[in-house]
């Protein structure tokens, strides 16, 4: 899928003096059914995570706390998104090379995914990815 299909998605925000509330419905606020949730936390400053692509997985990433950058790359062009609020996230399509960096201290990255974990869905080799998308 092309890079333009990946995008920032703003989520509903119910403002309240007692604290704000945001919700996410699979197939509604994110364009896939949510089958799995995982999160990255206690990330040491200066670390990078997630330099790989997925063959079929759709994902949605949110900064639940703190901030970090998500870089999405379709093999031809890359786009960097800064995530720093829990009421929006980045939708990442299949066949998109992606990594996360610039983590603040205490950052928590929550990821919603369209399928359960499967190592067979990963492309971890950059050259293999570039060949698969026709960029090499
Ligand atoms: P990985 O996706 O490779 O993380 P990153 O690319 O950010 O370094 O996952 C790290 C390890 O965690 C890897 O051994 C697979 C395992 N893992 C699961 O078992 N289930 C999951 O849902 C995820 C995302 C990872």
Automatic annotation (TrEMBL):
Short name of one Pfam family: FdtA
Domain Sugar 3,4-ketoisomerase QdtA cupin, first and last residues per copy: 5-133
InterPro entries the record matches: QdtA_cupin_dom, RmlC-like_jellyroll, RmlC_Cupin_sf
Entry-linked CDD domains: cupin_QdtA-like
Protein name, UniProt field: WxcM-like, C-terminal
Organism: Roseovarius tolerans
Taxonomic path: Bacteria, Pseudomonadati, Pseudomonadota, Alphaproteobacteria, Rhodobacterales
């Amino acid at each position: 899928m092309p890079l333009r299909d990946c995008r920032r998605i703003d989520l509903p925000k119910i403002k309240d003096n007692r604290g704000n509330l945001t919700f996410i419905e699979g197939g509604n606020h994110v364009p896939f059914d949510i089958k799995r949730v995982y999160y990255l936390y206690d990330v040491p400053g200066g670390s990078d995570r997630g330099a790989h692509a997925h063959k079929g997985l759709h994902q949605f990433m949110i900064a639940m706390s703190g901030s970090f950058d998500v870089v999405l790359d379709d093999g031809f062009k890359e786009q960097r998104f800064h995530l720093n609020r829990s009421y929006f996230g980045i939708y990442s399509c299949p066949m998109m090379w992606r990594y996360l960096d610039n983590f603040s201290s205490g950052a928590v990255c929550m990821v919603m995914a369209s399928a359960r974990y499967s190592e067979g869905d990963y492309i971890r080799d950059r050259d293999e990815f570039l060949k698969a998308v026709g960029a090499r």
